[in-house]
Amino acid sequence: MSSILFAVLAGVAATVQNSLNGLMNPHIGAMGTSVVVFLVQALLLPLYQLCVVRRRISFRGVSLACGFSGLIAVIVIGTLGFCVSRMGSAVTTCCSVGGQIMISALIDHFGLFGTARHPFTGRRALGFALILAGVLAINLAGSASGSEAPLGLLILAVLMGCGAVVVRTLNYRASQATGSMIGGGIVNSVSGAIFGVLLFLIPCGFRPDLSGFAGFPPVCYTAGLFGGACLLLNIAAYARQNVFYATIFMLVGQVSAGIAMDVFVFHALSAGKCAGIAVVLCGVLLDKLLTRGE
Asked: Model's pTM, two decimal places?
C-alpha cells in the first residue's frame, strides 16, 4: 500500500512542479526553468543527506548512463514547462501519459536498464486504446486558450513523457548503485544542474540576461523542492513494484493534480478536456484490472 501512495504523491509533485515551470517559462525560457529547478534540488538533497541522514554515500558504482540522466531530465523539465505554458497543465499531463505508459511497458517487457522483465500481454491493448482515445479527445477539445492544441506540441509532450520514465528508471538504478535513495536523487540533481547551467549559458555566449528571474512569482522557486520530492518518491515506488505499475499509479496522481492546477491556477478547463481526461483514467484503470496478477 505504501508503494501506491508513494507513486500517487510522486505524480502530484511532478504536476505541481510542471505547473510552476509553466509559470516561469515565459520569463526565462526552457533552459532557465531547468536551471532554477536543478540548482534548488542540487542544494537541498545533499544538504538533507548531510544534516538529517548523516550517512556517507559512495558513488563509485554509478554508471555513466545514470550520470547522463540529468541531461535527459533537463530537457524533459524545460520542455514540459514550455508545453504547460501553451497548452495548460491537464492537457500536457495527459499527452505525456501516453508516452509514459508505452515506454514503461517497453522497459518492463525487455528488462531495459537492468530492470526485471515483465512481459507485455495482449490484454493491455484495450487499455492503451482508451488512453490514446482520451488524448485525442483532449486535443479536439482545444488547448487552454480555447484553440486547437498544435499537433507538434502534443507529440512533444508524449516524447517528454517517455523521457521522464527513462529518467526515473535511471535514478532508481543510481539509488541501487549508491545503496541510498538520496544517492540516486543527488546523482540526478547534480548532473542536471551542471548540464542545465551549460545549456543555459552556451547559447548566449556566457552572457545571460538575468532580469527574467525576477519576473515570475517567488513561489515558482519551490519547483525544485517539488522536483526533489518527486525524485525520492519515485525511487521509493520503483523499489517496491515494477516500472509499469509504478508509472500507472503516478499517472493517477499526475492527472488529478493537473486538473486541480488548471482549475485553480490557470483557470481553464473545458468539459471536453474533462471528458478526455476521464477516458485516459478509464484506460489506466482498465489496464490495471486486466493485468492484475500477471
From this structure: 0.77
The residue behind cell 496478477 is 293
**Which parts of 49-150 fold into alpha helices (H)?**
64-67, 69-87, 89-110, 124-141
Question: What whole-number distance in Å separates Cα of residue 234 and Cα of residue 249?
Answer: 11
**What DSSP state is assigned to residue 80?**
H
Ordered DSSP codes for 90-108: HHHHHHHHHHHHHHHHHHH
Whether residue 127 contacts residue 293, with contact meaning beta carbons closer than 8 Å, is answered with: no
Confidence band, pLDDT 50/70/90 cuts, at residue 291 = low
Residue for grid cell 536543478:
38
Residue 144 has which C-alpha cell? 487552454
Q: What span, in angstroms and rounded, lies between the C-alpha atoms of 59 and 233? A: 20
State residue 186's pLDDT score. 92
Q: Taking CA 190 as the corner, what is the angle to CA 23 and CA 20, rounded to the nearest 5 degrees? A: 10
| Residue 274 pLDDT > 80 | no
* 16/257 Cα distance (integer angstroms): 7
> Which residue pairs, CB below 8 angstroms and at least 24 apart, start in 271-276?
271/141, 272/137, 272/138, 272/140, 272/141, 272/142, 273/88, 273/90, 273/91, 273/138, 273/141, 273/142, 275/137, 275/141, 276/94, 276/134, 276/135, 276/136, 276/137, 276/138, 276/139, 276/140, 276/141
* C-alpha–C-alpha distance, residues 87 and 142, integer Å: 9
Rounded CA gap, 198 and 260, in Å?
Answer: 34
Above 60 in pLDDT, residue 29? yes
272 versus 130: the higher-pLDDT residue is 130
Please state the separation of Cα 83 from the chain's center in Å: 13
Q: What φ, ψ does residue 80 adopt, rounded to 5°?
A: -65, -35
